[in-house]
Amino acid sequence: MEHIETLSHSQTQTLATNRLIRNTYTLLALTLAFSAAMAGVSMFFQLPFFNPIVFLLVYFGLLFLTTKFRNSGMGIVCVFALTGFLGMTLGPILSFYLATPHGSQLVMQALGATAFIFFALSAYALVSRKDFSFMGGFLFVGVLVAFLAGLAALFFNLPTLSLAVSAAFVLLSSGIILYQTSAIVNGGETNYIMATVTLYVSLYNLFLSLLRLLSAFSGDD
Question: Of 1, 44, 32, 89, which Cα lies nearest the Cα of 203?
Fold first, then answer.
C-alpha cells in the first residue's frame, strides 16, 4: 500500500513538473514575441533612449506588481506589461547599433549566441536534472555587485568598467538560466509566472551584454 502511495505521489509530482515546464516555456515564447513586437514599434516611432532613473522605477514597479499578482490572472497581465516595456527599451538600443557599419551583423550574432546559450544550458539542465540550487547565493551577490558596478559605469562614464560588467552579466545570466531551469525541474520553483520572468530577464541581459561586447571587440563601439 505504501509503495502504491509513493508511486502515485511520484506520478503526480512528475505531471506537475511537466505542466510547469510547458506553461513556463509557452509563456516565455509569447512574451518574447510580444517584446520583439514592442521593440519594432519603438524603432518605428524612433523613441529616444529611456532615462536610467525612469527605466529603473518602471522596471522595479512592474516587477513588484508581477510578484504580487503571480498567483492570479492579473499576474499574466503584469508579465506582458513588464516584457513589453523591456521590449520598448530595446528599440532605441537596436536602432543605435543598426546605424553602425556592421550593426546588422552584430545584432544577428548577439541574437544567435543568446539563443544557442539558452537552448544549450536549458537542455542540459532539463536532461541531466542536476540540482544547481547551490548557485543561488553566489548569483544573487554577483547580480547585485554587477548591477551597482553598472550604475557606476553609467553615471561616471567608465567604458572599461562597463565592458567588465557586460562580461560579468554574460556569465551571471548563463548561471541564472541553469539555476532557474534546475529549480523548475527539481521543485525549487513552482510558479510559472515567476519562472518566466526570471528566464526572460536573463535572456534580455544576456543579449544586451553580448551585443555590447561584440560591438566593442569589432571596433564599432
Answer: 32
Radius of gyration (Cα) for the chain, nearest Å? 19
Where is 41: in which H helix or E strand? Answer: helix 2-44
Euclidean distance between CA atoms 218 and 104, whole angstroms: 13
The set of residues, in sequence order, having a beta carbon less than 8 Å from that of 114 and lying 6+ positions away, is: 203, 206, 207, 210
Distance CA 157, CA 166 (A): 14
Spatial separation of the C-alpha atoms in residues 161 and 57, rounded to whole Å = 24
Q: What is the mean pLDDT of residues 127-150?
A: 94
Q: What is the pLDDT of residues 157-208, one digit of tens each?
A: 889 999 999 999 999 999 999 999 999 999 889 999 999 999 999 999 999 9
Alpha-carbon distance values, 120 to 37, 127, 196, 205 (Å): 25, 11, 17, 17
User: For residues 142 and 138, what is the distance between their CA atoms, to the nearest angstrom?
Assistant: 6
